[in-house]
Amino acid sequence: MTKTFHIRTYGCQMNERDSEALACMLRECGYRQVMAEEEADILLFNTCSVREQAERKVFGKVGILKKLKRRRPDIIIGVIGCMAQNYGRKILDELPHVDLVVGTDRMHLLPEILQDVCTGQRGQVHTEPGTEVLGKLRGHEPGRVSAFISVMRGCNQFCTYCIVPYVRGREKSRPLPDIVREVEEVVAQGAREIFLLGQNVTAYGLAELRDQGEYRPDVSPFADLLLAVNEVEGVERIRFTSPHPRFMNQAFIESITTLPKVCESLHVPLQSGSDRILKAMRRGYTSEDFMACIQAIRERQPEFTFTTDVIVGFPGETPEDFEATRRVMDAAGFEMAYIFKYSPRSGTKAAEMADDVPRALKEERNQILLQDLERRSAAGNDVYIGRTVEVLAEGPSKRNVERWAGRTRTNKVCIFPPAKSIQVGDLVQVHIERATPNSLFGEVL
């Protein structure tokens, strides 16, 4: 009898990408994917360790499955990804009903591991480091408009608050021809938009150049990669995340502002606008450096929109530090941001610092930044009223199936009435008639 599986994903787009690839691998091995947990013989939780809240969700969710395990002893429960890499066997100590723990560098072996578990070899832990996962964890859902392509894994920056280098390892980049081949494969399966992923994507290829003694600060292998993907026939749009400002050099800026398929939208983590806090975070740039990158791009492409990541309540953050963050966010014109209230991550340098900003103050600062974002987003979207924009049709809107949704090149969500002539993946011209802080609304021309 064919076993069924369900994957629940927590965290970043890299995790979403890994889950999609794992699902493709498991289906190729004869397993059947189901969308409801209660229908699954195998429950897999692809986890995130970046924030404490994400870990609490997983421990809570998997913890309550103890009752299900008593009711259905044959069900297989697995914890995979960053939490698995971070905690290893400790997960089994706390959650003994879990059957397998597979870290970030061993997920490509999941079909073989599951085969052993299905024959009774439960309680397995696989967290050995390695590079074999690069290029092996691949697969795309046919028909999806956007395709995530992992181009590198890991990070060498070791920001004081961040656990990524410990759970994803050091930077390892895939060979450019291998990435291009995967892009060609997903385009053949219907993808029109390519989303290149890496924890520190602008550092693509740099670790390898350093190993060869060929590194120079003015080179950008990632710019070379963008050019190669831009030349693949059938690719309509290129996006990527997340760049680090330290590696946004002239070659990079030139490529994203001149290559026609690279979209005019960029997610650039700021983390703080205070130079003192940036130094404590060990980010490697000042607020002036950051704004110089933003301005250099906008001088070449005024339409560019920017989003960001920000941490409020980092150890030692004063009211003046917080106001500096507000000023930089306003100057950059961020219309969307992932704002995180600082929480210590065990094993990082920041965890050794006093977490001295009260929780209530973190929440207050979080709300202030959210209000600022809504104001800027409303103003930024109002600019589009009366304009005609190119939208990549993604299909029925999740909130209203009688309408279709898509995104502009500047990554604005656009809602419009469906038409029989429009297919998923079409590029359509939409005349914008009204806007909210979150969406544009218009009619297809």
Topology:
Blueprint lengths: L3 E6 L3 H16 L3 E2 L8 E6 L4 H12 L1 H7 L4 E6 H6 L2 H5 L5 E3 L7 H9 L5 E3 L19 E5 L1 E2 L10 H4 L4 E2 L2 H13 L4 E5 L8 H6 L9 H10 L6 E5 L8 H9 L6 E3 L7 H7 L5 H14 L4 E8 L6 H14 L3 E6 L17 H24 L5 E9 L7 E5 L4 E4 L10 E9 L4 E5 L1
Parallel strand pairs: 1-2, 1-3, 3-4, 4-5, 5-6, 7-10, 10-11, 12-13, 13-14, 17-19
Antiparallel strand pairs: 8-9, 15-16, 15-18, 16-17, 18-19
Describe this structure in words.
The protein is of the alpha/beta class. It has four domains: 4-126, Rossmann fold (3-Layer(aba) Sandwich), CATH 3.40.50.12160; 140-263, Transcription Regulator spoIIAA (2-Layer Sandwich), CATH 3.30.750; 266-382, Transcription Regulator spoIIAA (2-Layer Sandwich); 388-444, OB fold (Dihydrolipoamide Acetyltransferase, E2P), CATH 2.40.50.140. It has 15 helices and 19 strands. The protein has a six-stranded parallel beta sheet with strand order 2-1-3-4-5-6, with helices on both faces. The chain has a five-stranded mixed barrel with strand order 15-16-17-19-18. Strand 18 (427-435) and strand 19 form a beta hairpin.
Structural class: alpha/beta
Count of discrete structural domains: 4
Computed over alpha carbons, the radius of gyration is: 22 Å
Largest sheet: number of strands, sense, barrel closure: 6 strands, parallel
Unreliable parts: none
Number of strands: 19
